[in-house]
Amino acid sequence: MLSEQTIRIIKSTVPVLEVHGVAITKRFYDKLFTSHPELLHLFNHANQKQGRQQAALANAVYAAAKHIDRLEMILPVVKQIAHKHRSLGVKPEQYPIVGEHLLGAIKDVLGDAATDDILGAWAEAYRVIASAFIGIESDMYTNSALQPGGWSDFRPFVIARKDRESDVITSFYLTPQDQGPIAGFEAGQYVSVRVQIPGDAYTHIRQYSLSHASGQPFYRISVKREDTNPAVPAGKVSVFLHNQVQEGDVLWLSAPAGDFTLDQTDTRPVTLLSGGVGLTPMVSMLHALVTTQPNRKVTFIHAAQNGAHHALRREVEQLAEKHPQVTIAWCYTQPTAADTSEQSYHKEGYVDLPWIQSLVPSVNGSFYFCGPLPFMKTVNQSLIAWGVTESDRHYEFFGPSGALS
Q1: Cβ-Cβ contacts under 8 Å for 227 (sequence gap 6 or more)
Q2: Where is this site: Influences the redox potential of the prosthetic heme and FAD groups (predicted)?
Q3: According to the model, what pLDDT value does residue 44 have?
């Protein structure tokens, strides 16, 4: 428990964090990687270069300070981060290192304003928060290892199949090298994939949503090649997987993780909305729904650039053909001439509220969405405008969490 004095001091720093939070986290990562370059094996370097990781950490620190007297308010975020930490292999002994450099960054950025009282209060608060993370992650590591087919750390998987799904997305079917059983998972979860790229000094770990049903003798991930936008650094791992990794090669995987999961206790209609490669967890959810809840009405809405970029389309269409409770709708922003002549999409342009309402008969249901940040902002704001409650809006970010406001 934190002392009243500590809570009061931490609360007093909230306005400062609102202004200087990102500067503090940028300085934190500079200090951390300078002193402990081995931790670069755990972090997504592209997210660092784009500032996404720094912004996400600043938001988390700000939320912790704002709710320091009611830490249960940030428990969902703590669990979400803990899932990622477990999948990455974050260990308890790394928390004191983080705490040391976070306090050092606060001191460096705030200078004389970071008094001994403020630094002492943040040190106390960090110990409490770190203890919570360590406890939650310890349970996750134990549960991951002891579940049927489970394991701890990373396990070698062989690429049994490599299928090109679209111009930019490829699926990898992964089977355990030891030929043992594999853990089940909840639709919407992901695995971490660890690779060593030849000539690169660091290993790289990326999370990819599982895109097929649980209970198969394989895991499937469907990966977008991230090298088409000249304004964004190319994704080292995605390009490596697309261009160099072949069937028969080995990838190292952590056990499935993540809290963006389908609530199968809910029997109301469900709408699955995705943009681009954001359809991967939605396809997994669709498989689960038609298998375990065959009477539940499902609306599957997907937005893509055009047919050449639309992955897993035929798979979803076949599920809809077999299961009349499933309705599908495609939205293309830049349909090709072939798309238009074949009438292979339902809307040109962007997903918007009137179109969603034309497909979904009632606001009384659950909505899951995933995709690029602009897509997610549009969907979230549309659902809010329609009156969909917060508890019925479920979403997943690629990489560090952002803001949908």
Answers
A1: 234, 235, 238, 239
A2: 84, 396
A3: 76
Hey, what domains does the chain have and what are their CATH numbers? Answer: 4-146 (1.10.490.10), 155-253 (2.40.30.10), 270-396 (3.40.50.80)
Identify the helix (H) or strand (E) that includes residue 48.
helix 45-50
Which regions in the chain score pLDDT beneath 70? Answer: 47, 230-234, 398-405
Of the CA atoms within 13 Å of residue 245, those in its CB half-sphere come to 31
The answer to whether residue 95 is catalytic is yes
Give the pTM. Answer: 0.92
User: Cα–Cα distance between 365 and 154 in angstroms, integer?
Assistant: 38
| pLDDT for 232 | 67
Q: Is 124 a catalytic residue?
A: no
Phi-psi region of 170 (alpha: psi -120 to 50; beta: other; left: phi over 0): beta
Which of these is catalytic: 29, 62, 95, 126? 95
Q: Which parts are annotated binding residues for NADP(+)?
A: 276-281
**Which of the following is catalytic: 29, 62, 126, 137?**
137
What letter does residue 256 receive in the DSSP assignment?
P
pLDDT for 2? 86
CA dist 75 and 70 (Å) reads: 10
How much is the pLDDT for 62?
A: 83
Q: What is the pLDDT of residues 207-240, one digit of tens each?
A: 999 999 999 999 999 999 988 776 666 678 999 9
Q: Where are the beta strands (DSSP E) in 268-355?
A: 270-275, 298-304, 326-332, 347-348
Q: Which residue has the tokens 């990326």?
A: 206
